[in-house]
Amino acid sequence: MLHKKIAIQTEGSLPDASLTLYLWDYSEEIPIRKRPLILILPGGGYHFLSDRESEPIALRFMAMGFHTAILRYSVAPARFPVSLKETALAVSYLYEHADEYQIDSDSIFVMGFSAGGHLAASYGAYWNSAFLSQESGCRTETLRPAGLLLCYPVISSDPAIRHEGSIRELLGDDWQDEELLRKVSIDKQVHPQMPPAFLWNTMQDDTVPPENSLVLVQAYMKQGIPIEYHLYEKGGHGLSLASALTDNMQHQCIEESCQNWIYLAEKWLNRSECKFLT
C-alpha cells in the first residue's frame, strides 16, 4: 500500500487542510492496473472532522479493491467556498496524477458524511461551473466526478428541514444572506450534468432530518439523473459503518439493520463505472 499526505491549500484554508492517499501498489501478479478511487469527505457540521468517518471508511473500501483518499478540508472559521475549492484541488490533483498512482481518471467518486455529504453534493452541483474553475484555478476537464456517495447528508437551507449548525458554520456572519442560502441549498442547484448518486439515511435521524435527502432525490428525479436511495427505519445520526468498529464514546452508533449500506454502495459502484471486479 502507498500511503501519502499532500497539503491542499487555497486562500482561506486552515493550515492542516490536506489530502491523504491510501493506494494499492502495482503488482505483476494482479491483472488489474488502474483502479477507481473514492475521495472521502468526513462530517462534523463544518466545525470539526470526524475520525469515525475517515480512515475506517477508507480502509473498508480499499479492502474492496478501490483506491481511497481522505480530504481533511477546512472547517470554521473558514467559510464558503473554501472547502469547495479544496475539494476541487483534491480531485484535480488525483486526475493529474492518475498515471503515477494507477488511478482510473474516469472513475473518481466523491463520498461525504453529514456536512461532508453537503460538501460532496455541493461539488457535484458546481464541478463544471465557471465559478469553481475560476476560484480553484483548475481546468474543468480535471474536475469531473464519476458519481457521489452521500451518507445522511446535509442538503437544504430551508429553515423547516436544515441543519442550522452546519449552515451557520459554513456561512458565518452571512448565514442569513438569501443569495448565499440558495447557493448552498443543493436541492435548488441540481442540473442535468450532475453525477449519478448513491444516498442513504435513517428515519430516526433527529440531527439532519431525512427530508434533506428526499428533496435531493426529488430534484434528481425531475432532471432524470440516476440516483439510488436507501431509507432505513432505525438508527440515529452519524452511524458511519454502524458497527462496533466505528461506534462513538456514548455507544450510540451500532445499528445492525444499517450495516449493509456499504455492500449496497459497492454494488452500485460496480454497476456504475467500476467494472474491474465484475
UniProtKB/TrEMBL annotation:
Molecular function terms, GO-annotated: hydrolase activity
InterPro entries, per the entry: AB_hydrolase_fold, BD-FAE-like_dom, GDXG_lipolytic_enzyme
Domain BD-FAE-like residue range list: 34-218
Keywords noted in UniProt: Hydrolase
Hydrolase recorded as keyword: yes
Keyword Hydrolase set for record: yes
Superkingdom assignment: Bacteria
Full protein name: BD-FAE-like domain-containing protein
